[in-house]
Amino acid sequence: MRTLRLKVKPGSREEGLTELDDGTWLARVKAPPVDGKANTAVIALVAQHFGLRKAQVHIKSGASGRSKLVQLED
Asked: What is the pLDDT of residues 27-65, one digit of tens each?
């Protein structure tokens, strides 16, 4: 099991996941931060990037903020 520290930018023009110099990841998603849409988009983006199913990606903490801990199951 692996844990990622994410900084999320909802409402971005382009979607993408990039690793920053300090070891955190920047997740840019088009979805707005309304009704959990951005969280759903983040889960889909992380799953696609690491070749996992969405069910293998969980937001461990920070569901209502821009900084999140995301857990990846093997």
From this structure: 999 999 999 999 999 999 999 999 999 999 999 999 999
Which tokens in the block code for residue 3?
């844990």
User: CA-CA distance, 3 to 56, in Å (whole number)?
Assistant: 12
Global pTM reads 0.93
Q: How far apart are CA 71 and CA 58, in angstroms?
A: 5
Q: Any idea which residue has 């990841």 for tokens?
A: 25
Find the Cα–Cα–Cα–Cα dihedral 53, 57, 63, 68, rounded to 10°.
-130
Q: How far apart are CA 72 and CA 74, in angstroms?
A: 7
DSSP H or E segment with residue 16: strand 16-19
Domains and CATH numbers, the chain: 2-72 (3.30.1200.10)
Q: What's the DSSP call for residue 63?
A: T
